[in-house]
Write a sequence for this structure.
């Protein structure tokens, strides 16, 4: 990219010059917004604004930093006057298998999953990749939504992306003191929610056998075997339903009661939010299987601790999953 007299020679720049930054910007915008769809919209808006305002890039910072500035402003615009997104566990107490009413909240109430392939780097230092996975997990992104938008941006830039305070101050057009103060307040908020952004990520054991047992049990609809894989404090949520369960007993009762429509389902493996995930396809009375939910399965040690089912079939295209089986 040619720089002439402190400005970019626009004739040498093409829209595809921004593309190498798309994945990392998507991960950043997702952490800010809590929605895969909105993150993609924000990144697309970033690319459009960057192209339209290329003459304003004076070359004093890198193209990457400039794109992050635009992406931050796009996210702040989208967050203005809006309620935070959440998971069901953040909105009320656990229910029981027989307390399900079918009550739902609108799409904008919920955190949604994002494919690893669209939000996380696919190569690099293993420790850094593990850290990236930790900071895109559902619990961390949910906790971020409790921060005011500018604090959220500061914490992500400083703690997740490891920018210097001076770089963040320049991006946000503020002082280093203000950045440090915002970071301190953001850390305190996350600590109160038992989230430590600087916590070293655990080294994941090989969970392939556990997940294979889960898939086998779910597809055979062997609920006794399935619940044996769950931690005593495992949770299950099903956005957009305003409802969640805790523990193998209630989850087992759910699968054999209201949730029995999952009998005969098929699972297709994918990855979301740094975790194993599956496209869940229910039996279609007209033949084959139709999309039902994206399952995000959280594992700790040798047990499943989270079973989150996102009943938005529009997500299947986002994850590159088949329209039907």
């Amino acid at each position: 990219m040619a720089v002439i007299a402190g400005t970019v020679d626009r004739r040498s720049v093409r829209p595809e010059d921004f593309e190498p930054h798309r994945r990392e910007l998507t991960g950043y915008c997702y952490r800010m917004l809590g929605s895969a769809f909105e993150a993609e919209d924000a990144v697309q808006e970033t690319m459009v604004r960057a192209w339209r305002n290329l003459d304003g890039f004076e070359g004093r910072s890198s193209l990457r930093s400039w794109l992050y500035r635009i992406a931050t402003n796009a996210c702040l615009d989208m967050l203005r006057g809006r309620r935070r997104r959440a998971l069901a566990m953040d909105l009320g107490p656990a229910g029981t298998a027989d307390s399900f009413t079918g009550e739902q909240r609108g799409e904008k109430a919920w955190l949604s999953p994002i494919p690893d392939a669209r939000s996380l780097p696919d190569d690099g230092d293993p420790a850094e990749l593990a850290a990236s996975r930790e900071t895109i997990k559902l619990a961390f992104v949910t906790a971020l939504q409790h921060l005011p938008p500018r604090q959220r941006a500061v914490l992500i830039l400083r703690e997740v992306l490891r920018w210097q305070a001076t770089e963040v101050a320049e991006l946000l057009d503020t002082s280093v003191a203000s950045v440090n103060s915002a970071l301190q307040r953001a850390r305190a908020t996350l600590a109160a929610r038992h989230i430590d952004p600087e916590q070293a990520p655990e080294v994941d054991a090989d969970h392939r056998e556990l997940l294979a047992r889960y898939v086998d049990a779910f597809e055979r609809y062997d609920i006794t075997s399935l619940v044996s894989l769950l931690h005593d404090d495992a949770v299950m949520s099903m956005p957009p339903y305003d409802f969640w369960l805790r523990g193998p007993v209630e989850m087992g009762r759910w699968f054999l009661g209201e949730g029995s429509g999952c009998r005969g389902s098929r699972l297709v493996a994918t990855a979301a939010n740094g975790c194993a995930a599956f496209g869940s396809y229910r039996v279609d009375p007209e033949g084959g299987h139709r999309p039902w939910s994206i399952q995000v399965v959280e594992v700790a040690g040798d047990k499943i601790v989270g079973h989150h089912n996102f009943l938005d079939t529009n997500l299947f295209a986002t994850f590159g999953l088949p329209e039907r089986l």
Remarks:
- Residues 36-52 form the longest helix (17 residues).
- The longest strand covers residues 289-300.
